[in-house]
Fold these 4 entries.
Entry 1:
Amino acid sequence: NEWNASQWDATVFRQLHRHWALLTAGSIAHYNAMTINWGGFGTLWQKPTVTVYVKPVRYTHDYMMEQEYFSVSFFPERYHQDPADNDKLSQTSLTPEQWGSAVVYREASLALVCRKIYSLPMAAQGIPQEIAAQYYKTDAPHTIFFGEVLTILQS
């Protein structure tokens, strides 16, 4: 099924926090993906949006900076793995597919195809000390990516 983002009714706070998603950028010929569980859903410039956070040290960060489109895919429980696993994607049998200008996965229960409309690096000086000590001891803060949700696919 495919529908417009304004038709999506979900408990949004549960989507990323309790169920990791796969952020994917690039084309079917050359793409990269990473698991995420930080992000948000909302409205920006009267457009339905998804917000994701990617550290500059992540390989996916380069793809997100270079590409105009990305996807956020959610999966049934049988695809969920321990969040501590570093290379979750290689441990699955996911089937990537091109959908418009984005890569999604046949096994996804829900996939959001997005067009990047803005990105902004987090300013280290604006992050509370206790948060910086916990998440940014050695790495630069995340870059925030805002994507307009163009299509929602549900299996």
Note: The mean pLDDT is 87.
Entry 2:
Amino acid sequence: LSLQINEGDIAIFDVKGFSFQHLSKISLSSVRAYMQFTQEGFPLRLKQVHFINVSPIVNKIMMIARPFMNKKVKDSLKFHSDDLTSFYEQVAKKYLPKDYGGDCEELAELKEKFLKEIMENRFVVVQWKVLKNLFVEKPLGPTSFRKSIGNQFTP
């Protein structure tokens, strides 16, 4: 029996159009909280984090965020300008949507499939919410229970 363990996921952030106006909306406390979550609470193992269509403003944001990053996270970050040649050297096109020069379906199609999958399996999400309320948070009374699941079981 062979056990395959995921070497890690690759996150890709398209920061095209990111501006100083966006930077003004970012607080130091939210950067700190996000970095803490990413390093300690994120439920996936991130092998690499790619930022594509990077402008000089992204470098300023990274200067703010870097003090809150451990070495492993810093080493996983990859930055690519609008010339994606270096990106394609690290991420095979067979894994990318057509929107980014890849071989997979377009993002809109992938989003539609993802939402369909979520809706077809929404009972799992509802069950998780119910279990969380039963075992983690305070138990729900009958009225609160009905409110918590709402009309999740109807199409």
Note: The two ends are 41 Å apart (CA to CA).
Entry 3:
Amino acid sequence: DYSNPKVSYNGKIQYKQFLFGPNLNIGVGASMFKLQNENIFNDEFISIDANLELILLPHDNLTPYIFGGGGAILDSDTRFKVQYGLGFEYLLSPKLGLRVFGEQNITFKDDLDGLVNGKRDDYFWRFGVGISFYLGKPYKKAQSKILNKKGTKNE
């Protein structure tokens, strides 16, 4: 509801599990982030969320992905939300990826920032850069394209 938002921090940890193949996964995670505005609003939040993620090019080192899901913002009052976004991931190795993303979070109330104003419920954007660590073996179908039999990257 306020103008002049300021950029602040966002930290997230997430667990993902592939479903039905290398293109689709489900992730559950927790985030800590700060929303602030010039001299008016400054507050920290914790959120939990679950997303379905569609990996568009699962056999390539650089792939776009889209995601969406729901969650909750936890503070003195629990606020439910939906989120969706898109990003890119570049696999530096079969076990390590670099991600960039953007996401919109839409709440179902207009008081997240302490001000009820306007026609719409509160929403906010998050943009970030992250690192993905892949534990265990890659999904079987993706493994055949990403790795050769000796466990090294295909070129």
Note: Residues 34 and 61 are 32 Å apart (CA to CA).
Entry 4:
Amino acid sequence: KRIDLVQDVTTVVELLTNQKDIPQLVAKFPDTCKVRGNSEEVRQILVNVILNAAAMDPTGQPIQVVVAEETGVGQIRVLDNGPGFSPEALENFGTPFYSSRHGGTGLGLATSLRTAENMGGTLRVDENYQNGACVVLSLALDDKARDHSESEFS
């Protein structure tokens, strides 16, 4: 199914803005980013990742939510200023019942990882990000939407 990641990010950011224990959310995105996926599932993944970022970053610094197109995929990157992922947490990313978050069960990320894979996408940590943690959801671009939008503007 064709969805727009920009609409999904906008919906989640609006939902979580001014929620208790959620720092400021800074969203950056293009006009549109059409991918193949399921909006409800994308939103669930995004809420989970943002809540984890907020819980792991005691500084209260803004969390960035960035939508971008890479080669063949649309991505949502959630970037925080917390401690990042330890080697053990990276090794266990998405493992049920493993959590480095106080009071966490590990089920949110495990479910999110499987949900992303069921949509033909990935959920991973960008290990090159040095200022905290960066979790990336990638889904295949919808070629029909991209070809159509390119022809409209030609």
Note: The first strand starts at residue 2 and ends at 4.
